[in-house]
């Protein structure tokens, strides 16, 4: 009698481990404090720029188009490739460039604090870069790219994971501060999922001269949030 054996017995599981590593990195349960920041969204609610599900979807779509596709995502790809090739100079360059794009004290503080928290976590897990590789004030994006590199996540999947984490964080903010119901949040996810994919496609085609966010409304909202009288999120 023939005995059936699993077809994947002994198969290379590196892709599975990379996927799980990306899920861990993008998880809201990652203990780095990302839940404490609204990235200007709470101020948009307070100022009356965003009132409902439709307007929130439009806001998020604009941030994707004029922000993530032009800044965080193409920069994340460059940083991960620089880590992979051992190009420390490029890592330092793009980390400095990243800080220069943070237009308010709040956005700059978020980048630095989340980067520091992620570095602390990586050290506790034995996954941190060597000290001489780490740039001054490593940003969250810089260390997200490093972690994806260590986990052997393909660059495209890294960008998708980062974008998914951003969307989830923004919807958590909306559910707390708008308020937005959880079912409405899921409708927004269904609407935005194809946009996440096309945004990654756009980001991967950007030349260096094309980089830089075009988000004056978000920057203004973030600046006003720093002195907002009543708020749930950090500034």
Automatic annotation (TrEMBL):
<keyword id="KW-0143">Chaperone</keyword>
<comment type="subunit">
    <text>UreD, UreF and UreG form a complex that acts as a GTP-hydrolysis-dependent molecular chaperone, activating the urease apoprotein by helping to assemble the nickel containing metallocenter of UreC. The UreE protein probably delivers the nickel.</text>
</comment>
<dbReference type="GO" id="GO:0016151">
    <property type="term" value="F:nickel cation binding"/>
</dbReference>
<keyword id="KW-0996">Nickel insertion</keyword>
<protein>
    <recommendedName>
        <fullName>Urease accessory protein UreF</fullName>
    </recommendedName>
</protein>
<keyword id="KW-0963">Cytoplasm</keyword>
<comment type="similarity">
    <text>Belongs to the UreF family.</text>
</comment>
<dbReference type="Pfam" id="PF01730">
    <property type="entry name" value="UreF"/>
</dbReference>
<dbReference type="InterPro" id="IPR038277">
    <property type="entry name" value="UreF_sf"/>
</dbReference>
<dbReference type="GO" id="GO:0005737">
    <property type="term" value="C:cytoplasm"/>
</dbReference>
<comment type="function">
    <text>Required for maturation of urease via the functional incorporation of the urease nickel metallocenter.</text>
</comment>
<dbReference type="InterPro" id="IPR002639">
    <property type="entry name" value="UreF"/>
</dbReference>
